From TrEMBL:
Enzyme Commission (EC) number: 4.3.3.7
Catalytic residues as annotated in Swiss-Prot or TrEMBL: 136 (proton donor/acceptor), 165 (schiff-base intermediate with substrate)
Name of the protein in its database record: 4-hydroxy-tetrahydrodipicolinate synthase
Known catalytic reactions: L-aspartate 4-semialdehyde + pyruvate = (2S,4S)-4-hydroxy-2,3,4,5-tetrahydrodipicolinate + H2O + H(+)
Any Gene Ontology biological process: diaminopimelate biosynthetic process
A Pfam family per the record: DHDPS
Associated pathway: Amino-acid biosynthesis; L-lysine biosynthesis via DAP pathway; (S)-tetrahydrodipicolinate from L-aspartate: step 3/4
Gene Ontology molecular function: any one: 4-hydroxy-tetrahydrodipicolinate synthase activity
InterPro entries hit by this protein: Aldolase_TIM, DapA, DapA-like
Biological role: Catalyzes the condensation of (S)-aspartate-beta-semialdehyde [(S)-ASA] and pyruvate to 4-hydroxy-tetrahydrodipicolinate (HTPA).
Length: 301
């Protein structure tokens, strides 16, 4: 049984104007760009989208704009993460009324709760929200590493828990997630949050990824995914090495949001490089390095 969500999904950046208000035209342009270049889905209100810097109204606005622009063409799966469980529920219900395809939620990121309390947090959301849900493990920012056993329990109890996104540099964690949870639910999606792990996770039996650079060049991710799915492993490896070259932009930039915004800027996209404080646009030196990576790969917008 195929997972509900798979392939290449972009954690949508939030384009800002110089005054740090949302650049609505840039949001619509970027959604079209991604849909036309092969994403299977878009995840607005994401980590890469600086969701912690957005008001509830802004999160709703961005999701509405993405839905209006590409809804029905690709999945729209917005983030509903908050420190208070009922806030997650409330936002998810609003998004459901808007017609989204699912939602993504992290652990709370202030209080570092126990696995038992984390189960209550996720179970409450799953019980109160009738949407396919992806639970997102990103311990570098939440301070909580979701145990594989908790995914296993929740997948067993809630059929609309659609999958896991994990931004974690552990082959063992992905192996255990795939082996343990897919044994319970073959339709449970295992998705990497790291572009460079796309092919290894697919080879282990995972389903794809929600990766920041898919904001810019999802055709590179699709080349890896499509060649792997078609059984051409040699081609998949060749395409993966091109994607690995692109991931050097992370090494140069100071954050995921600004790495993506800088890459878009050097390619001449109508997306400005502004990020909300305490994030700041990258220096000219970093821009030059990122431009060199784009040139090496022959990227164009």
């Amino acid at each position: 049984m195929k997972a509900k969500f798979y392939g290449v999904i972009s954690p949508f950046i939030t384009p800002f104007k110089e005054d740090y208000t949302i650049d609505e035209e840039a949001v619509k342009w970027l959604a079209r760009h991604q849909a036309e270049n092969g994403v299977h889905g878009i995840f607005p209100n994401s980590t890469t989208g600086e969701f912690v810097h957005l008001s509830r109204e802004e999160s709703i606005t961005i999701t509405r704009l993405v839905l209006e622009t590409v809804g029905g063409k690709v999945w729209v799966i917005p983030g509903i993460s908050a420190n208070y469980t009922e806030e997650c529920v409330s936002l998810a219900r609003t998004f459901k009324e808007m017609g989204v395809d699912g939602a993504v939620v992290t652990p709370p990121y202030f209080f570092k709760v126990s696995p038992e309390r984390l189960k209550v947090h996720f179970s409450t959301i799953l019980e109160k929200v009738d949407l396919p849900l992806i639970i997102y493990n990103i311990p570098a920012t939440t301070g909580i590493n979701i145990p594989v056993s908790l995914y296993q329990q929740l997948a067993r109890e809630y059929s609309h828990l659609a999958g896991a996104k994990a931004t974690i540099e552990s082959f063992t964690y992905f192996r255990q997630l795939i082996q343990a949870v897919k044994a319970e639910r073959k339709d449970f999606a295992v998705l990497t949050g790291l572009d460079d792990l796309l092919l290894p996770v697919l080879m282990m039996g995972g389903d794809g990824g929600i990766m920041a650079l898919a904001n810019v060049a999802p055709h590179l991710h699709r080349a890896v995914y499509d060649s792997f799915i078609s059984g051409d492993l040699a081609k998949a490896v060749e395409n993966w090495h091109r994607l690995l070259t692109l991931t050097k932009v992370y090494d140069y930039a100071t954050s995921f949001p600004t790495s993506v915004k800088t890459l878009l800027e050097v390619l001449g996209a109508p997306v400005k490089p502004y990020a909300r404080s305490p994030l700041t646009p990258e220096s000219n030196d970093v821009k030059q390095k990122i431009a060199q990576v784009a040139k090496e790969l022959g990227l164009k917008i």
